[in-house]
Design goal:
12 helices
Length: 256
Amino acid sequence: MLDNPVRAKLLKGGTAFGQMAFEFFTPGLSRIMANAGCEFVILDTEHSGVGIETVKSQVAYARGTGLVPMVRVTGTHYHLIAPMLDAGVQGIMVPMVETAEQARKIASWCRYRPQGVRGLAFGMPHDDYEGGSHIAKMKVANARTLVIALVETATGIDNVDAIMATPGIDVGWLGHFDLTNSLGIDGQFDHPRYRAAVKRLVRACAKNGKPAGFLCGDVKTGRRYLKWGFRMLCYGTDIAVYQQALAAGIAGLRAK
């Protein structure tokens, strides 16, 4: 079974960079991202309309590229998480995590006993269709699965210390747009209440020895969040990066 170098790197205090994918689920996407320097991809299913068959294909395309495939599921339910893990993703991001009880359930659904309650099935995509001891495979799977709690509401921030203290939660990810919406300060990323929430999340992550994650839209913003203590960053989305680069090129051609 493949290991997860991103999880290992983060646990050692390192920083990892990747991108979120919403639209361009082609056979070459993983290789293109890997060649660009991405260490991981988070395949979105919450807002993209993408299903498990697409995710399963993307996991297969990622094999041999060095890119770690992860997925954002649509909610806090076992039946949304377990099939994605069986499809071979090595990380799970769950949106709208607001309580330690939710975090505990998420962590347990992502791992086999004794750490969790994930159902057993082997000779599947997640273990590369190989034979061998399922006991050994469960240990590898438990060690490689990166569990990301997406904290993006006022309630989530109020409970972020307990969420990040939950065993099995590996990353606290800041959902910045939803958070400002929840706080009643839509898109005001310089607002004192938003800044205070960011600091609270970073402190909770640091206190529990876990990285904070963020999706940045540009290098300047990304470097600011790195300075604030974030260690897992997505550089935009496939849609935004393509559209911005294309718009800049077309504008340059039209310039007189």
